[in-house]
Amino acid sequence: MEKGQPAPAASAPAAGRDHSRDADDDCDDDDAWNKRIRRTGCFAENERLLICHADTGDWRKCADELAAFRRCMQRRGQLQ
Predict the structure, then answer these.
(1) Cα atoms in the 13 Å half-sphere on the side-chain side of 44
(2) Which 3-state string (H, E, C) describes the chain?
(3) In angstroms, what CA-CA distances link 19 with 24, 58, 64?
(4) What domain of life does the native source organism fall in (predicted)?
(5) 19, 13 Cβ separation under 8 angstroms
(6) 56-61: long-range contacts (C-beta < 8 A, 24 or more apart)?
(7) Integer CA distances (angstroms), 31 to 25, 27, 38, 66, 74, in order
(8) Is the Cβ–Cβ distance between 26 and 34 less than 8 Å?
(9) Per-residue pLDDT at 15
């Protein structure tokens, strides 16, 4: 840095975001989510739905996968 130039400003953390969490916490959250979905008995249907969305980026293009997941959840009494 040259003399007379201001020091670069430190970037402030995003408001409302908890930066104390690390990557391991994300894995724990994912594991807990997967455990809950597996208990429903509809894990495969949920995976197909999530993959469809990841591939297309548009939930509207995943209507068939969403309907299959919904039917599975209804059959297993997970939806009222």
Answers:
(1) 4
(2) CCCCCCCCCCCCCCCCCCCCCCHHHHHHHHHHHHHHHHHHCCHHHHHHHHHHHHHHCCHHHHHHHHHHHHHHHHHCCCCC
(3) 13, 29, 37
(4) Eukaryota
(5) yes
(6) none
(7) 10, 6, 10, 22, 23
(8) no
(9) 46
> What is the chain's Cα-based Rg?
21
pLDDT tens, residue by residue, 31-75: 898 899 999 999 999 999 999 999 999 999 999 999 999 999 999
Q: Which two tokens stand for residue 33?
A: 């989510």
CA dist 15 and 28 (Å) reads 24
Query: Where are the domains positioned within the chain?
Result: 41-80
